[in-house]
Amino acid sequence: MKTDNPLSTRLHFQDADAFYECLLDAHQGLSREESELLNARLILLMANQLGDTAVLRACVAAAAKTAATPG
Amino acid sequence: MPETTQIHDKAPAALAATFSNGYEFAQGAGYALPEYPFIEPPELRTGEVKRHAVAIVGGGITGLTLACALAQYGVRAVLLDEDNTVGVKGASSRGICYAQKSLEIFKRLGIYERIAARGVQWSVGRTFAGQDEVYAFDLRQQQSHSLSRQPPFINIQQFYVEGFLVEQLYSPAPEDRLVDIRWSHRVTGFEQNADFVTLQLETPAGAYALEAEHVIDCSGSRSPFRAWCGATVTAQQGDDRWCIADVRFKNPPPAERHTWIEAPFNEGRAVWQHLMADGVWRIDYQMPPQARPEEVSREDVVRARLKAQFKSQSGRLLDDSDYEIVWVGPYAYRSECLDSLRHGRVFFAGDAAHVMSPFGARGGNSGVQDADNLAWKLAAVLQGRAAPALLDSYHHERHEAATHNVRVTNRTARFLRPADGAERLFRSAALGLAREHVFARQLVNTGRMSTPSHYTQSSACGPAGGRATQNVGFAWADGRPGELLDLLGWAHGRLLLLSFGDVSAAALARLAALSLEAGLRCVQVICPGEKAAAVEHVVDVQGHLQATCHVFGHAWALLRPDGHVAATGESVDASLVHAVAAALGAGPGGKENP
């Protein structure tokens, strides 16, 4: 289906549970500050994997929208 | 050790007699700049109000570039400067980095050789965070700079460039000078109607008025014309504070641009280390936002900073006798862009039109491009080759360039002065990654060096046009080496059509007719070994003409006097005729200024 939204919300994970576990493990034992820095590094690394400006913008917008309406 | 640096390496005798012509270099007191004489204008006696086609207000780098370019196109102008010197008295600050596009413009204006002889070339930049080098670049390796005959950058104090421009304007015999420079003239009043502007002027010998059909305001960021014209400004003010120390070392550091994002010798704040002419180094320190200018610029404080910096670099203590302080200046920057660069008969250029942070050398270099953009358009309109509507494209093109430059410099400012919290967090993350991964160096923003503007919104440029060409080399028909600026010089303010590859007899006839009708200059560009059909032809020995015009194979490229591509196409047909009309302000997109 063709859509104007460049953000793909279709399931793309090969193994979502494994990623989630890996992410939590990486944060284990870190202070809040260390965790924040890890996340920031991770975002930049992942953003470079995506590369595409429109996709990145859509991701930021989608994340910001969710952040504004917690829960 | 005071030293005199003569800028008049080949000064005409008449000049040497009238000007105090040395930039004297005195420790701690900056340069003594040349002074130009106030000459009482005849209007003061006669009371006559003269009408000029063009009045330029402000003899800084923008106004003087414009004056020189107009003179080269054969246009008369009067230039009004409130001071009697170049630069700012006692200050050696302001621009130091001249980008390739500016250098190409200065080459056309005849002062490039002097800039190259006096200035310093550099291409290597290194960025540090803490004790580590995060990354280095060499501009010569980058494709965007590799084709031109001019280097990526030359560093030189701005007043030298301005002084060279003044001397260029004074180089013809007095009766042959097209630009009448009026020093010590302050503009104190302004009004305009549909046909002309009236300026009230104050001079040491009294006040008078003059009229001008076009006024170009190059009077800098404190321009009174903004208020007089009711110009609106989009602005942003930050709290970042800096302090420059221009110094000269006995044992100079390497001829490279060094930037520290978090300098251990500056309390973890940024530092710039850059070179310029006469062996002078500009060291620019980021200060805490609440820093008091009078304190951070105090000599003992400056010397302590220098000692801390060069101790950490060379491993030994810097002695006061190892260097001299040329000039110290604290500053804060802001960004401003006029929403319209044209108000009736007034055009805004340089800092009068836009102000930005110094990162990437986009201030002076964009003023030079403003001047170059407007000069050929004014010449073409005043000499009857273009429609008056062409002048509106000045706003469209240079406003796009200014907003781009403001956006780019604001991004750098935000990287260098991140807000506490997430902004600082992401900078730490980017710096950490950049040490290990090449991709992350792209995120480390210590200034994106000035590149030629690309006009994407202009009605005077076709869809494939708007880019700047570089001053590439080729061979003339007789085999001698030539460069693109020679061809633009030959076109002398007219559009230049480069016709690549074969040209049929029918196309040649159409080109000849178009040349006559639109005042176009045409050149056939052939590959080595190809047979020329046109008398006027050149050989694209290395394919650089094709590359810089972004065309391939059989094609045409229409170049403007400012070296920008107006349009490109494949066959000599109606599309070329339309492109020529559009480039001269008569295209369907051209609209009259209200």
Quick structural summary:
The complex is a heterodimer of chains A (71) and B (594). Helix content of chain A is 66%, strand content 0%. Chain A is mainly α and 71 residues long.
Assign a percent range to the helix content of chain B. Answer: 25-40%
At the first level of CATH, what is the class of the domain at 37-119 and 153-233 and 335-408 in chain B? Answer: Alpha Beta
- State the helix count of chain B: 17
Classification by helices and strands of chain B: alpha+beta
Low-confidence stretches of chain B: 1-28, 589-594
Biggest beta sheet attributes of chain B: 8 strands, mixed
Radius of gyration of chain A: 14 Å
Give the CATH topology of the domain at 37-119 and 153-233 and 335-408 in chain B: FAD/NAD(P)-binding domain
Rg calc of chain B? 25 Å
Helix content of chain A: 55-70%
What is the CA–CA distance across the termini of chain A? 30 Å
Report how far apart the termini of chain B are. 58 Å
Shape assignment of chain B? globular
Q: Give the helix tally of chain A.
A: 3
What is the assembly state of the chains in this entry?
A: heterodimer
Mean pLDDT of chain A: 90
Describe the structure.
- The complex is a heterodimer of chains A (71) and B (594).
- Chain A is an all-alpha fold and 71 residues long.
- Chain A is 66% helix and 0% strand.
- Chain A has three helices and no strands.
- Chain A has helices spanning 16-27, 32-50, 53-68.
- Chain A is globular and about 40 Å long.
- The model of chain A has no long low-confidence stretch (mean pLDDT 90).
- Chain B is of the alpha+beta class and 594 residues long.
- Among the domains of chain B are: 37-119 and 153-233 and 335-408, FAD/NAD(P)-binding domain (3-Layer(bba) Sandwich); 473-583, Glutaredoxin (3-Layer(aba) Sandwich).
- In chain B, strands 4, 5, 11, 12, 13, 14, 20 and 21 form an eight-stranded mixed beta sheet that branches.
- The longest helix of chain B has 25 residues, at 392-416.
- The chains are: A mainly alpha (71), B alpha+beta (594).
- The A-B interface holds A 36-37, 40-41, 43-45, 48 and B 425-426, 428-430, 432-433, 437, 439-440, 443.
